[in-house]
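Progress report, Aim 2. The chain analyzed during this reporting quarter is listed below.
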Amino acid sequence: MRVGVVDRPAGDRRRREEPAPAGGAPLFELRDVGKTFGSGTVALEGLDFAVGRHAFVSLLGPSGCGKSTVLRLIAGLLRPSRGRILWHRRISRGDIGFVFQEPTLMPWATVFDNVWLPLRLQGRGRREAGEEVERALAMVGLSDFARAYPRELSGGMKMRASIARALVTRPKLLLMDEPFAALDEITRFKLNNELLNLWAKENWTVVFVTHSVYESVYLSERILVMAARPGRITGEIPIPVPHPRDEAFRLSPTYTEACRRVSAELRRAMGE
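Predicted structure tokens for the chain:
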């Protein structure tokens, strides 16, 4: 299934030209996107933003502001109730990797078979897909655990396996829904560093959902701050610090000041 332009409902023919995001031509844009569920809940309203190719953009906001809904709209798992999602290059469903907050691994299957699943659903046999699966496991440091079962893995290793499953199709766009939220701080920092290294090496576009000001500042080139009821973007903060980033950045005055600015914007979005 191809992910393409999602049009406004008939009768709404407004057009607005949005500037390309900093850092390059856009991969996709949301224009005046809203989402209302069948219950009548208005989850999102008036979203306008673009994401550039090879960008790392974070969505930051409180629970219930619609961050996960935004990812599902981008992935084509939901359709907007209004507005348009415009793609500036041809993207197939297989070009999009999705990492959820929980690893959601099949407990009866080995790590290899869990990572093989997306290729299996494409009709790829186990032997045929072996090289791609092994490559994905190597990318996340799990080559030695291909025959292990999820119950034998730590929380961080389970999340690595989940990331490998998203990477096995070699996506152009990686959507990540609070993937490190349940991990301890040391493991979270380590996986943050590994994610940035992979992003730089593989040239993905990443849209990353988080509740953490500190994580968003460390990872992102740009942070979109969201408010709830209805979900909307209230602020956009660039983090103009070059990559690669390391622990020296976490300890720098630049990082501290960026966290202060993002925290202030988040408080404003929450009406505090």
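Helices lie at 67-75, 111-121, 126-139, 155-167, 185-202, 213-219, 247-250, 253-269. Confidence is low (pLDDT under 50) at residues 1-20. These observations will guide the mutagenesis work planned for the next reporting period.
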